[in-house]
Amino acid sequence: MTEESTDQATPGSQETVPEQSPLALVSGKPVVDLPKDLYIPPDALAVFLEAFEGPLDLLLYLIRRQNMNILDIDVSEITRQYMDYIGAVEAMRFELAAEYLVMAATLAEIKSRMLLPSRESDDDEEVDPRAELIRRLQQYERFKQAAEDIDALPRLERDTFAVSAALPDMPSSQPHPDVDLREMLLALQGVLRRADLFTSHHVERERLSTRERMSAILSALQGDHFATFESLFTVEEGRLGVVVTFLATLELVKEQLIEVAQAEVLGPIHVRARAVS
After folding, report:
1. Which range has the worst mean pLDDT, 152-156, 195-199, 219-223?
2. If 269 and its partner were Cys, which of 38, 46, 137, 229 is the partner (CB 3.0–4.6 Å)?
3. What is the mean pLDDT of residues 191-212?
4. 271 pairs with which residues across the strands?
5. Nearest Cα to 177, choosing from 261, 253, 270, 258?
6. In whole angstroms, what is the distance from residue 108 CA to residue 117 CA?
């Protein structure tokens, strides 16, 4: 009797099937398996590498990424990475500039010259084949850094904008300068010189009063108009009348009944009655 072997699951046991993650979502539905008739053109996928401004820019980037000293370049490693970049660009079917190919040939030449044994000679000084490339890299690095520093400066119409605003019309009022007492004394001196011309030696009873003269000055300064300081005096009264008028004027200023103004320095002095609020 032939015993037939069959795979039978043990009752009560369950086989665990790992859940497969979807490849994509199409119209909100997960797609697990790729369609059999799916065709992807070779140019459908493209990898965009960092753009460089030239072969020196690419070399400087590779040197900085490897933290190499620009004066001590590992030509072999830099050449390998440079050729990898060239190969990646050609694989993406991009048109490669001729200067990149020239730099690749230059690196290959430098690498081959460094592999040759050095000649021992006392007369001929050995020249480092990397010297010219290092000089070009240093010069390019200086200009690149200068360009970055200039680009970081604020630029008109890009980072800064010129604006103009009209000033509001403000009422202009010219404040009168404060009248110094010395200015009043100088003006009094001129009045006294003219009053001396009418001086007499008549002896008579005192008939001038400071209070009466204060009232006379206030009566003469009716209204809001200014009067000259000299117009308050009557030179025919002589020195005594001038002094009484000056004292009356100072008393009125002290009691804030009149105000004294001067339009400009060393200009004529004007007085007027103060408005009663």
Report:
1. 195-199
2. 229
3. 74
4. 227, 260
5. 261
6. 16
